[in-house]
Specification:
The structure is a single chain. By secondary structure, this protein is mainly alpha-helical. It has one domain. Helix content is 64%, strand content 0%. The chain contains eight helices and no strands. Helix 1 packs antiparallel against helix 7. The longest helix has 28 residues. The relative contact order is 0.16.
Length: 201
Amino acid sequence: MSEPFNTPPAADLTAFPTSGPPFYTVSLVKLTVMMFITCGLYGLYWFYKNWSRYKAYSAKPIWPVLRTVFCFFYIPSLFSKVNAALKEAGRGGIPYWGAYAAGIYLLAFTPSIVTGYASGWGSSPSAAFGLIPTIGVYTFTGLGQFLITLRVQSFINRLDGKSGESRRICFTFGDVVWAVTGICYWALLVQIYAWLSSANM
């Protein structure tokens, strides 16, 4: 016999999701431009927007800021939730989403492996392989991670519905702030590159 005044724990309560897509919808062109201008720093904003949108949609007690700070550890969780949302909406899913997550991890650790290999020779990576090849390793691995992110975003945009937001290319004031930050970061990288080049001459 059920007890009419027996309240289930808060964890057992299921909230109704909000309207709109469960993840961050953004044009692939805009994502590409912003990631390039900010040298990948826009990726932090991308993670935050996805987790904050998912929190609002699912009404689950997650911390988007925490999952953004430790985004590296939450990559498989994000990809799996996108995959589940696509299947629930009857739009297929992300084939081999685990392979995408593994690919990001492999590409992220590749520069460290190269660095450790060079350290075994008792020299820095730039001294062991040359400055340009070392920069090439970091550029190649960063590009690979971005392409995986872009691929996942294309699946996220399938959840956009009829809003058409995934096809719009509009920049907000926040995007301008990110762009200015990215330009300053690029300028700093150029200065560091110039300093390293003069030091190796």
